[in-house]
Specification:
extended, 7 helices, two-stranded parallel ribbon, 178 residues, mainly alpha, 3 domains
Amino acid sequence: MIRETLIKEGIGRDQLTIHSDRGPAMRSQAVAQLLATLGVTKSHSRPHVSDDNPFSESQFKTLKYRPDFPDRFASQDHGLDFCRGFFHWHNEEYCHWGIGLLTPAVVHTGQATAILEARASVLAAAHARHPERFVQGVPRPLTPAAEIWLNLPENRPTIRTLELPRDSKFVPQLSQSH
Protein backbone atom coordinates (compact mmCIF):
# COMPACT_ATOMS: atom_id res chain seq x y z
CA MET A 1 0.00 0.00 0.00
CA ILE A 2 2.80 2.44 0.86
CA ARG A 3 4.70 1.76 -2.37
CA GLU A 4 1.53 2.01 -4.49
CA THR A 5 0.54 5.29 -2.85
CA LEU A 6 3.98 6.84 -3.42
CA ILE A 7 3.81 5.91 -7.09
CA LYS A 8 0.20 7.10 -7.46
CA GLU A 9 0.93 10.45 -5.82
CA GLY A 10 4.28 10.99 -7.53
CA ILE A 11 6.24 11.17 -4.26
CA GLY A 12 9.98 10.76 -4.73
CA ARG A 13 12.75 9.70 -2.39
CA ASP A 14 13.33 11.86 0.71
CA GLN A 15 10.04 13.76 0.26
CA LEU A 16 7.90 12.00 2.85
CA THR A 17 7.91 11.27 6.56
CA ILE A 18 5.44 8.71 7.84
CA HIS A 19 4.45 9.27 11.44
CA SER A 20 2.96 6.41 13.40
CA ASP A 21 2.42 5.04 16.84
CA ARG A 22 4.81 2.45 18.22
CA GLY A 23 2.66 -0.50 17.18
CA PRO A 24 4.45 -3.72 16.27
CA ALA A 25 3.56 -3.50 12.57
CA MET A 26 5.14 -0.07 12.15
CA ARG A 27 8.21 -1.08 14.18
CA SER A 28 8.75 -4.30 12.24
CA GLN A 29 11.94 -4.88 10.33
CA ALA A 30 9.98 -5.49 7.10
CA VAL A 31 8.32 -2.05 7.24
CA ALA A 32 11.59 -0.39 8.24
CA GLN A 33 13.36 -1.96 5.25
CA LEU A 34 10.53 -1.00 2.88
CA LEU A 35 10.58 2.61 4.04
CA ALA A 36 14.37 2.77 3.75
CA THR A 37 14.22 1.30 0.23
CA LEU A 38 11.56 3.85 -0.79
CA GLY A 39 13.45 6.77 0.79
CA VAL A 40 10.70 7.44 3.33
CA THR A 41 11.65 8.77 6.76
CA LYS A 42 9.80 7.13 9.62
CA SER A 43 8.79 8.87 12.80
CA HIS A 44 7.26 7.33 15.90
CA SER A 45 5.29 8.80 18.75
CA ARG A 46 7.12 9.28 22.01
CA PRO A 47 6.60 6.31 24.33
CA HIS A 48 3.41 6.50 26.43
CA VAL A 49 2.25 9.72 24.72
CA SER A 50 -1.08 9.52 22.93
CA ASP A 51 -1.19 13.01 21.44
CA ASP A 52 2.07 13.15 19.52
CA ASN A 53 0.40 13.60 16.15
CA PRO A 54 -1.95 16.58 16.37
CA PHE A 55 -3.41 15.99 12.90
CA SER A 56 -4.45 12.43 13.72
CA GLU A 57 -5.69 13.39 17.16
CA SER A 58 -7.77 16.19 15.67
CA GLN A 59 -9.24 13.81 13.12
CA PHE A 60 -10.09 11.24 15.81
CA LYS A 61 -11.82 13.93 17.86
CA THR A 62 -13.81 15.05 14.80
CA LEU A 63 -14.78 11.43 14.17
CA LYS A 64 -15.85 10.71 17.74
CA TYR A 65 -17.82 13.95 18.15
CA ARG A 66 -19.93 13.46 15.02
CA PRO A 67 -23.61 13.37 15.99
CA ASP A 68 -24.04 10.00 14.28
CA PHE A 69 -21.03 8.33 15.96
CA PRO A 70 -22.43 5.15 17.52
CA ASP A 71 -21.91 4.08 21.12
CA ARG A 72 -20.77 0.72 19.76
CA PHE A 73 -20.23 -0.74 16.34
CA ALA A 74 -22.43 -3.76 15.76
CA SER A 75 -19.80 -5.45 13.59
CA GLN A 76 -16.56 -4.87 11.75
CA ASP A 77 -18.58 -4.12 8.60
CA HIS A 78 -20.59 -1.51 10.53
CA GLY A 79 -17.33 0.15 11.65
CA LEU A 80 -15.89 0.08 8.13
CA ASP A 81 -19.07 1.52 6.63
CA PHE A 82 -19.17 4.29 9.22
CA CYS A 83 -15.51 5.19 8.68
CA ARG A 84 -15.83 5.13 4.88
CA GLY A 85 -18.69 7.60 5.12
CA PHE A 86 -16.82 9.75 7.62
CA PHE A 87 -13.61 9.92 5.60
CA HIS A 88 -15.52 10.71 2.41
CA TRP A 89 -17.27 13.59 4.22
CA HIS A 90 -14.05 14.74 5.94
CA ASN A 91 -11.99 14.78 2.73
CA GLU A 92 -14.55 15.59 0.02
CA GLU A 93 -17.27 17.71 1.66
CA TYR A 94 -16.10 19.32 4.90
CA CYS A 95 -14.48 22.73 4.42
CA HIS A 96 -11.54 22.99 6.83
CA TRP A 97 -10.73 26.34 8.44
CA GLY A 98 -6.97 25.66 8.43
CA ILE A 99 -6.89 25.26 4.65
CA GLY A 100 -8.93 28.33 3.76
CA LEU A 101 -12.39 26.73 4.02
CA LEU A 102 -11.48 24.30 1.26
CA THR A 103 -11.76 20.53 1.32
CA PRO A 104 -8.61 18.41 1.47
CA ALA A 105 -9.60 16.88 -1.88
CA VAL A 106 -9.76 20.31 -3.54
CA VAL A 107 -6.31 21.23 -2.24
CA HIS A 108 -4.82 17.83 -3.05
CA THR A 109 -6.11 17.80 -6.63
CA GLY A 110 -4.92 21.34 -7.39
CA GLN A 111 -8.36 22.95 -7.67
CA ALA A 112 -7.77 25.44 -4.83
CA THR A 113 -6.51 28.26 -7.08
CA ALA A 114 -9.62 28.24 -9.28
CA ILE A 115 -11.94 28.16 -6.27
CA LEU A 116 -10.09 30.98 -4.51
CA GLU A 117 -10.17 33.07 -7.70
CA ALA A 118 -13.93 32.53 -7.98
CA ARG A 119 -14.38 33.51 -4.31
CA ALA A 120 -12.31 36.65 -4.84
CA SER A 121 -14.51 37.60 -7.82
CA VAL A 122 -17.69 37.13 -5.81
CA LEU A 123 -16.30 39.20 -2.93
CA ALA A 124 -15.17 41.95 -5.31
CA ALA A 125 -18.60 42.06 -6.94
CA ALA A 126 -20.29 42.27 -3.52
CA HIS A 127 -17.95 45.11 -2.56
CA ALA A 128 -18.60 46.94 -5.83
CA ARG A 129 -22.37 46.76 -5.28
CA HIS A 130 -22.28 47.81 -1.62
CA PRO A 131 -18.89 49.25 -0.58
CA GLU A 132 -20.47 50.76 2.54
CA ARG A 133 -20.91 47.25 3.94
CA PHE A 134 -17.17 46.60 3.85
CA VAL A 135 -15.52 49.07 6.21
CA GLN A 136 -12.11 47.44 5.83
CA GLY A 137 -12.12 47.49 2.04
CA VAL A 138 -12.44 44.66 -0.42
CA PRO A 139 -12.74 41.38 1.48
CA ARG A 140 -10.28 38.64 0.65
CA PRO A 141 -10.91 34.90 0.68
CA LEU A 142 -9.08 32.85 3.26
CA THR A 143 -6.05 31.08 1.86
CA PRO A 144 -4.41 27.88 3.02
CA ALA A 145 -0.99 27.96 4.64
CA ALA A 146 1.85 27.41 2.18
CA GLU A 147 3.49 24.89 4.54
CA ILE A 148 2.36 22.87 7.52
CA TRP A 149 4.79 20.96 9.72
CA LEU A 150 4.45 18.66 12.69
CA ASN A 151 8.11 18.99 13.56
CA LEU A 152 9.75 21.93 11.83
CA PRO A 153 13.20 20.90 10.58
CA GLU A 154 16.07 22.72 12.27
CA ASN A 155 17.17 24.30 8.98
CA ARG A 156 13.72 25.94 8.60
CA PRO A 157 13.59 28.82 11.12
CA THR A 158 9.93 29.78 10.66
CA ILE A 159 6.66 28.48 9.37
CA ARG A 160 5.64 30.61 6.44
CA THR A 161 2.06 31.30 5.50
CA LEU A 162 0.94 32.23 2.05
CA GLU A 163 1.20 36.00 1.72
CA LEU A 164 -0.47 37.32 -1.39
CA PRO A 165 0.85 40.50 -3.02
CA ARG A 166 -1.68 43.25 -3.65
CA ASP A 167 -1.55 42.51 -7.38
CA SER A 168 -2.38 38.84 -6.83
CA LYS A 169 -5.28 37.45 -8.80
CA PHE A 170 -6.79 36.45 -5.42
CA VAL A 171 -6.98 40.10 -4.32
CA PRO A 172 -9.33 42.12 -6.49
CA GLN A 173 -7.98 45.57 -7.25
CA LEU A 174 -10.17 48.60 -6.71
CA SER A 175 -10.53 51.09 -9.51
CA GLN A 176 -9.22 54.60 -8.86
CA SER A 177 -12.78 55.86 -8.32
CA HIS A 178 -13.13 53.87 -5.08
